[in-house]
Q: What sequence folds into this?
């Protein structure tokens, strides 16, 4: 499995404000770059915190780029939500129309919620007791031919992926604003590392919109 994490942060490293409302940190050129990234993967992943905050549809991508890079018959990327307790609303945009939506969940999810989400078309993958065991869940996606993932956030999920050693590449757009706030989500939240910090190697720097894109590989 190949895992690329992409996110947009403010100059002070925040993903959004303390109100957890979606903020347009990046501009048109960066959204177009993300659409190309989406076109190059088999699946787009977010945590349920992002679904509850932003209600993304995860459908938009650069179709022409997908055909060019992956061939005329390549399917669009599937949508994947890490949601330990099946908190995704049945009316969420990520479940509406379009490609398959996988819900990665855990044994802790109430069975009736799991059922309700299955009833509206979600493919549920149960892995882990309290939280989603991301390694196991990704292994099950691989069994379905999903081999390259783009993770778009949020901070809790991104931290867990680094903690589990599952990230191969990290791309960050750093925008020209300060959001501030000790409770505002950052690129990697969770408990944080106190030692054995994951190390990155700089693979690219590009000025874009009113900010900069940094590309890193994980050592
Ligand atoms: N600027 C950007 O590029 C983006 C910003 N965001 C922002 O991020 C915020 C949401 O981020 P978070 O609250 O951190 O939520 P999140 O999107 O990281 O979801 C966290 C949830 O995922 C579930 N989960 C399941 N298994 C997990 C595991 N093993 N480890 C961690 N989580 C697991 C849990 O239910 C947990 O509460 C919103 O404010 C949203 O606007 C989100 C995506 C992109
Ligand atoms: N790349 C990027 N730049 C920003 O400034 C953002 N606020 C976000 N947010 C994420 O974009 C996704 C929206 O998905 P859809 O367009 O609804 O498919 C979602 O993951 C947001 O959290 N991203």
A:
């Amino acid at each position: 499995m190949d895992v690329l994490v992409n996110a947009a942060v403010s100059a002070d490293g925040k993903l959004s404000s303390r109100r957890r409302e979606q903020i347009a940190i990046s501009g048109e050129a960066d959204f177009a770059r993300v659409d190309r990234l989406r076109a190059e993967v088999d699946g787009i992943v977010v945590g349920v915190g992002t679904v509850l905050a932003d209600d993304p549809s995860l459908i938009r991508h650069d179709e022409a780029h997908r055909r060019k890079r992956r061939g005329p018959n390549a399917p669009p990327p599937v949508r994947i939500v890490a949601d330990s307790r099946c908190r995704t609303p049945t009316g969420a945009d990520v479940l509406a129309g379009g490609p398959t939506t996988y819900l990665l969940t855990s044994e802790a999810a109430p069975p009736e919620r799991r059922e309700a989400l299955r009833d509206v078309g979600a493919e549920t993958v149960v892995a882990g007791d309290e939280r989603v065991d991301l390694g196991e869940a990704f292994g099950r996606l691989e069994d379905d031919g999903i081999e390259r993932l783009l993770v778009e956030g949020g901070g809790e999920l991104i931290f867990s992926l680094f903690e589990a050693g599952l990230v191969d590449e990290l791309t960050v757009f750093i925008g020209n604003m300060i959001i501030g706030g000790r409770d505002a989500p950052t690129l990697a939240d969770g408990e944080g590392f106190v030692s054995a910090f994951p190390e990155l190697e700089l693979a690219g720097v590009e000025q874009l919109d009113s900010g900069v894109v940094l590309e890193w590989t994980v050592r």
Observations:
- The two ends are 16 Å apart (CA to CA).
- The longest strand covers residues 200-208.
